[in-house]
């Protein structure tokens, strides 16, 4: 059952930050509440104060700038991202991933900010955003700061947000030329949380045979979204071909740190990492090559 | 806990309530307003039996704090039919036997209604009800019912 | 095949509860509120096996808003069980007094002004337990020295069953080929959308009314009266709508018992609704089984001898587990002619949540094992899977020695249809396979372990002056559509339209007895009772019509669509509505009243009639991840005469979703008696996105035992899918997995093993 709390609705970002500074440790932010309310109903989380930022329209936006790239406000809903023509144009792999997240009902009300701030290592779409080199902006009464999303989650369900700090924006830089991102999530029931997920970014060199840059990010394979750096190193500067991808997949499966649970054993998770890494890297490579010949990018 | 005012419109009717902020939207609809068509089937926001429309969007009313619905327009299953005039979707459900025990049906109808509103000619109907569990029908009759409406086999009755 | 043209049955009518359900008007127990109603909660044991030393409820009682806190000491201390004929199997107190035997067993209950207060009060109840050694697996529990759950059950053996005919040893001697396999069938949760719930209302006259989500109001009434020490008919059980049952709601449950206890103490209504977590952990579930099956056949595939041995995980109490033990043994031989057969089943108590009835009742487990082995045998001998089944299929008139007489049987036609469909699929893409499974099931059981003196089903009809027919039945519609089926049978027999029927059900105060919706019995048993009543009512009306029409005695009268007429000369007739008016006047102003009933007598050991079918599952197996994707599921089903075609289709598709889930996604993993996935996030049942294309091909036969020749179409359909799915995987990937559910991990491990060889 939900324990009693004091309810505060913030009408501006400033008001929200002031309330957060006022209540310091003993508050929780509610926006879509799609993760929070479940925890509160089970009595696992029982804040003294609840600060509602759902109405902060100023934090709900999706825009693209040819220099700065994509910016998404933290209170933008998953469904808005899924349906956005801007996302479809500049970052379709994100729209695709959103489509496979939870349910339409959850996506209509839940937000990207809430999702990322929850710090779930199995959550979408963090791996894609990390693969795309995203940064997050945070604000408090003290000021603003930004950080690579890669450094945002520090442990299971824990982020580096300070006590009175709010996640306000996600920024994805413009993709370099000859770059593509591919993503795949493995689950038994569709839209379920992934047993394992992998996002792979490949940038091709100008000669279009070598890999110039690679970023491989794993979901549900460690206590945080995990960058398989050793696997990446195997690809960078090399001529990409099937054998190499297979070995990179194997490396990714060895360097990550998955657990066994009722969904899958550790062994099976590692195997899925291997299979999915190979698959997504292959897909990203093919798309990057195709984009190269048309002189563009594919995300 | 201090009660707060909640003003919202449900099925076209305006309501002013004093509620505890910890109440969920589903509790207000069922217990305060007596609209028991909307059900609860779980406590993890998984089953979709509590689905209602909030400003036209399908949401799980068990995962929305009632107080967050301030100023919103809610539609529940009771608000679909216009008197005796069922919606095309309701008629299609009847014709296709798209329900059995009926407990998930309200949520199913709300999801399907919102889905068709957004995509009158959808490619993938399964996506539209992915968030709703039905243990009785095996879903295919529900898909057929929604498909028939999407294919314009039903017209609005005498409007 | 006797066939008449039908006006109502076998036509796609609207479900008679349809408007109520699609407009949100249908009130389930979940929706019931009464004046001054309190809310109840149940405290449950965290230990799988423990003595209750002491319970201190004083703090809980003092919490503001709490009205009563009760424990097992506040009951009459009676043990109850649904197998009432066998007192030693009535072993469950529900609210434990001295000892708990599974995690989740109730130990105390609270009534308070609201749910939150009741929940808070639970935290304030202090229970001192003395944990006892526990045992979780049946094969461990029967060992010497294992912890004993019940005094009277030596080595924890709860029930045993033996079925035998022919000379099995001789059969194996004569066989050209013998094969033995071991299987493990998993548990499964019912996951009714409406959880178990009850609103109990005890009033100063000493009468108890219980609104409850149930499949058998009669059983609940009797069991409650017994355990509470009330007169049977001072208890009234009501609900018109039940939000799903699947076998979980015809035994007395903790919500019903605790709310009644509290209401009796307070003389106020008390409502208890189980949470989804309680639904998973503390209601009953499908019986896990450890199976050994050995078959002996001739090299041309003719079946000679079969031997099966089963140990089932009983959980802490008997519940309906004895029936599951018997039915699994019987349906292990189905639907084939086995010249000799031997089955030994042992149900073993374990410190886990009791296992009981779930759709199929032991037959899905049996069918999985039997059909998997048959495909393996066929493969070993180089025989086509359809042909080996055809060779040994049951046929109309076959007598299962000492067990059953098969009257109608369309199995051969079912095999034909599936054979045709498979051939139409042509060459399959790589990593895809089609597997089949043949099955049969009972249309209600002949057993009376409940020890009822009543007919198994009854119906009463009253016809009013405007021709409206009041039909009173005892059956319960939990979604399977029995309400519509009964209205259809009544309308067809009486010769009126379905709109002329007004159905009365779901209230033990006003309705006759029916044993409930389980064992797929309603269509045949309640249907027969309804038909009998309608026939009697029709007879009374025709007597009056005859007086008016004055036909020659050799001419028959009938009623069709409200028209009473000479069958030979249908244009000569009268309106039913007119004759009814005169009939009532002619009977001293009394409405026409008629009764019907049905009890199977001398119908063998299991059932008066059996449905049959063959199902094919087409599935892809991903060689890299082991993931299974269902593409098609086609079923040829013989349910005799179809009564409600929309209903049959719906039951089939629903059964596929549930049975496929049993085959490859659903499971209740446990750790020392604790269920690890008691929620709808972690418990994986199929959603719309996992459903394959489905097709139902009806094979019509005529079953003399059933109304209009009808048989069941509800549970039997759950039998084949796990086996057909397993066989599809076998044909797609060359691996046979005998341990349910068939998860991707098991598939991959099996593929790896296969590669090594």
Explain what this protein looks like in three dimensions.
The complex is a heterotrimer of chains A (299), B (159) and C (757). By secondary structure, chain A is an alpha+beta fold. Helices cover 35% and strands 24% of the residues of chain A. In chain A, strands 4-5-10-6-7 form a 5-stranded antiparallel sheet. A 4-stranded antiparallel sheet of chain A has the order 11-12-13-14. In chain A, strands 1-3-2 form a 3-stranded parallel sheet, covered by helices on one side. Chain B is an alpha+beta fold and 159 residues long. In chain B, α2 crosses α5. A 7-stranded mixed sheet of chain C has the order 3-5-1-12-9-10-11, with helices on both faces. Chain C has a 5-stranded mixed sheet with strand order 7-16-15-14-8, with helices on both faces. A 4-stranded mixed sheet of chain C has the order 20-28-29-32, sandwiched between helices. Chain C starts with 17 loop residues before the first helix and ends with a helix.
CATH superfamily of the largest domain in chain B: Beta-grasp domain
What string gives the helices and strands of chain A in order?
EHEHEEEHHHHHHEEEEEEEEEHHH
Whole-angstrom Rg of chain B: 16 Å
Greatest contact between two chains:
B-C, 51 and 59 residues
The percentage of residues in β strands of chain A lies in 15-25%
Q: What overall form of chain B do the CA principal axes indicate?
A: globular
Helical coverage of chain A, percent range: 25-40%
Helix/sheet category of chain B: alpha+beta
Number of helical elements of chain A = 11
* Number of separate strands of chain A: 14
Query: What would you call the structural class of chain A?
Result: alpha+beta
Which oligomeric form is depicted? heterotrimer
